[in-house]
Amino acid sequence: GSFYTARSNFIDALKILEKLVQAKPKVSAYRVALSEAYLRFERVDEAAATALEAIELDVQNPFAYYRLAKVYYEIAMYEEAVSALRKSVELSPNVGEIYFLYGQTLSKMGNASQAIVNLREAVRLMPDYTPALYTLGKALNDDARFAEAVEPLTKVDELNPNDSDIKSGLGLALMESGNYDRALKVLFELDK
What we know:
By secondary structure, this protein is mainly α. It has helices at about 1-25, 30-40, 45-55, 60-75, 80-90, 95-110, 110-125, 130-140, 145-160, 165-175, 180-190. The longest helix is centred in the N-terminal third of the chain and has 22 residues, at about 1-25.
């Protein structure tokens, strides 16, 4: 029941946003929100076009660039996403979500060092945002920087003590950084 209610609410929201854009065609923020709604419904072409329209209306809107980057990220157009994210960061340098997506995108492109820089900034701006903490820890593990991965993975494990992926990553970071006793304790928690 709740899935259909939520989907119905999203459809209603989408219709409302489309009406708002029609009624106020010069408001960039409505197009940003509509782009997000289109992306949720996997209407990627419309999401991209609407984000581009939002940018045309207000080239100083960092969230329009962020939304466009999100569309590009979802369809694996990472170079284009990075370009939009650069502009978004330039316009709004204190928004953690932008750095998080930037880090994810760079990670997908295989640029671990720059991904880690952006993920660290996301965590600095959003210290309890578990996706950023986990993604930072995973990126550090993937880059064989195990000792550095312990801190973000420990924090995200404290916030989500029942997540086996987090525990596995933390166990790996601890083991590879020489903290065998704590690693075994964390890994034994997986069997509970």
